[in-house]
């Protein structure tokens, strides 16, 4: 914490403006990927673009996965493909609540 916080005195916050997850969120809670973005920015701070791309690649990949969920989508696709394959082979049947039938309860 700096002794004299110029940004706060002037009423501006450049850090929050530059970062996606640091902007003001509803109900004052931090963004979902705020921690990953902060780690990525802190890792690359002061390194320069070329060196930061090489050394901060894991942090960047974690941040992008949190933002876009691409690995999660690929994993879910494989799980659903395996389920469909097992259904065709007759090794698995869907539970009653997943069959799409009308509920018989009142």
From TrEMBL:
Q: Give GO BP annotations, semicolon-separated.
A: mitochondrial respiratory chain complex I assembly
Membrane topology, from the record: Peripheral membrane protein
Per the record, the major location class is mitochondrion
User: Which GO CC annotations does the UniProt entry carry?
Assistant: mitochondrial inner membrane; mitochondrial intermembrane space
The record's disulfide annotation reads 33-66, 43-56
Question: Matching Pfam families, A to Z?
Answer: Ndufs5 (PF10200)
Q: Write down the InterPro entries for this protein, in alphabetical order.
A: NADH_UbQ_OxRdtase_FeS-su5
| Cellular compartments annotated | Mitochondrion inner membrane; Mitochondrion intermembrane space
User: Keywords of this protein's UniProt record, alphabetized?
Assistant: Disulfide bond, Electron transport, Membrane, Mitochondrion, Mitochondrion inner membrane, Respiratory chain, Transport
What is the stated purpose of this protein?
Answer: Accessory subunit of the mitochondrial membrane respiratory chain NADH dehydrogenase (Complex I), that is believed not to be involved in catalysis. Complex I functions in the transfer of electrons from NADH to the respiratory chain. The immediate electron acceptor for the enzyme is believed to be ubiquinone.
Q: What does the subunit section of this Swiss-Prot or TrEMBL entry state? A: Mammalian complex I is composed of 45 different subunits. This is a component of the iron-sulfur (IP) fragment of the enzyme.
Q: What is this protein called?
A: NADH dehydrogenase [ubiquinone] iron-sulfur protein 5
Species of provenance = Callipepla squamata
